[in-house]
Amino acid sequence: VHIRSNFIMNGVCVRWRGWIDLERLDGVGCLEYDEERGAIEDAILREQIERYSSRMREIEERQRIYKAQQERQAEHAEKQHKKHTTELSPERTGSASN
């Protein structure tokens, strides 16, 4: 019996090709690199990597925007705090009572 079987071995697309004598249950075979299936698997892998990279860029961009917003809010709060403490400073209230 002649047999051909495609599979992935250690991450590589291969084709086992050989024959087996059914009466003696022995035979000969070899593994060959399956270029066609390898190209398909490579394209799928590249597509997955591109989707992952795109998603990572989106997450990093959102994180950068969020951090910038947080910094602006902190600066605004600090300015408001300084303005409020300046308005209530003892020097200003003391000079007003003189």
TrEMBL record:
Pfam families: CBF_beta (PF02312). One of its GO terms (biological process) is regulation of transcription by RNA polymerase II. Keywords: Nucleus. It is found in: Nucleus. Residues 67-98 are annotated as: Disordered. Belongs to the CBF-beta family. This is Protein big brother-like protein. It comes from Dinothrombium tinctorium.
